[in-house]
Design goal:
Layout (H helix, E strand, L loop, with lengths): L6 E6 L5 H14 L4 E5 L16 H10 L1 E4 L13 H8 L4 E7 L12 E7 L9 E5 L2 E4 L5 H17 L4 E6 L7 H15 L4 E6 H10 L6 E4 L1 H14 L7 E5 L4 E5 L16 H13 L3 H17 L13 H12 L2
Parallel strand pairs: 1-2, 1-3, 3-12, 5-10, 8-9, 8-10
Antiparallel strand pairs: 4-5, 4-11, 6-7, 11-12
Helix pairs in contact: 1-8, 1-10, 4-5, 6-7, 8-9, 9-10
The structure holds 1,4-dihydronicotinamide adenine dinucleotide (NAI).
Length: 338
């Protein structure tokens, strides 16, 4: 049983490199004496059976009970087979906000310096509503759904996040010049939220212009709020600005449940070889600690990991180094010692 100040967290190690990087996080948390009690549950694409519910009852029960989860990557078959387990998790638990911070890591080469932005993506509707059908042979319709409820909710979340994290600006990204009704509604909700947070600067960009501005001068951005599809694409673009997906964390936030995960996938090419970089999952776990109110500890573990990365002596192969998951985690643990 967890002690009174322990946070119960569901741990879904996932597939491919997932179990290796999840173990690394657990070890680092133990060494930092993080007040987290893990409940480990298994979820995998390999165990999914087409036509049956994607999420096992044990996973649903554990996540509902604990309210917080840390998840390793899960595979998704492309163009056929069962649906995405990640989408199923987001839909089942109504994880409406996908939050992806992007910032430079000192010591690691990247195209830009001083990037520090956060993408807040609507996670439940838009083009990802799963409403596709063939109207006639060779003609497929895919329905984009934008609702006032979901748009108000994500706009409010973005401004609340900015206010709490002492951020200066929120930028709404849209294509309301063409999709006047759907993106128009999204934009209207962002404007209404902006009026309520008048101390936070607000601007609007059309998504194509936003992509150009991001690759020209990413430092002008702070918090960005986007409908689902644009958010998916723009958040990967942002990760590329600071050196790729390898270090990118994320949180999927709902009203009462939050699930944190690294942005990268299962890395089947290196799975089981002890080579995976655990930093993205560790940064996601630090976001989780802050979400649980353990801000100082989250900052401390994150700093230890940034220090190891900045020194450059102990890097995994994806960052041009030679060490494995275990050595990298040991180096972080050493930095955590008083
Ligand atoms: P991937 O991110 O798994 O791999 C792309 C490249 O990056 C590979 O060379 C891999 O070795 C490397 N890489 C990724 N993470 C790494 C890490 N932590 N340390 C060292 N190297 C790392 O992307 P890919 O190959 O497109 O997807 C593989 C599977 O993962 C697919 O089934 C896909 O659906 C799934 N996936 C799952 C995600 C999730 O669960 N959130 C997100 C993205 C993909």
């Amino acid at each position: 049983m967890p002690s009174q100040n322990q946070h119960p967290v569901t741990l879904i190690p996932g597939e491919g490199i997932g179990p290796e990087i999840a173990d690394a996080v657990v070890r680092i948390f133990e060494s930092a004496e993080a007040p987290v009690s893990w409940e480990r549950v298994e979820l995998s694409s390999a165990a999914a059976v087409e036509g049956e519910p994607l999420l096992p009852e044990a996973v649903i029960e554990s996540v509902r009970k604990n309210g917080t989860a840390l998840k390793g990557p899960l595979a998704t078959p492309i163009g056929k087979g069962h649906g995405s387990l990640n989408l199923a998790l987001r839909k089942t638990f109504q994880l409406y906000a996908n939050v992806r911070p992007t910032r430079n890591v000192a010591g690691l080469e990247s195209r830009f310096k001083n990037v520090d932005l956060v993408v807040v993506r609507e996670n439940t509707e838009g083009e990802y509503s799963g409403l596709e059908h063939e109207v006639a042979p060779g003609v497929v319709e895919s329905i984009k759904v934008i609702t006032r409820t979901a748009s108000e909710r994500i706009a409010r979340y973005a401004f609340e996040y900015a206010a709490t994290a002492n951020r200066r600006k929120v930028s709404a990204v849209h294509k309301a010049n063409i999709m006047k009704k759907s993106d128009g509604l999204f934009l209207q909700c962002c404007r209404e939220a902006a009026e309520k947070y008048s101390h936070i600067e607000y601007d609007e960009l059309i998504v194509d212009n936003c992509c150009m501005q991001l690759v020209l001068d990413p430092c002008r951005f702070d918090v960005m709020v986007l409908p689902n599809l644009y958010g998916d694409i723009v958040s990967d673009l942002c990760a590329g600005l600071v050196g790729g997906l390898g270090l990118a964390p994320s949180g999927n936030i709902g009203e009462s449940i939050a699930l944190f995960e690294s942005v990268h996938g299962t890395a089947p090419d290196i799975a089981g070889q002890g080579k995976a970089n655990p930093a993205a999952l560790l940064f996601s776990a630090c976001m989780m600690l802050r979400h649980l109110g353990e801000t100082d500890l989250g900052d401390r573990i994150e700093r230890a990991c940034y220090d190891v990365l900045a020194e450059g002596r102990c890097l995994t192969a994806d960052l041009g180094g030679k060490v494995g998951t275990r050595e990298f985690s040991d180096a972080v643990i050493e930095k955590l010692q008083p």
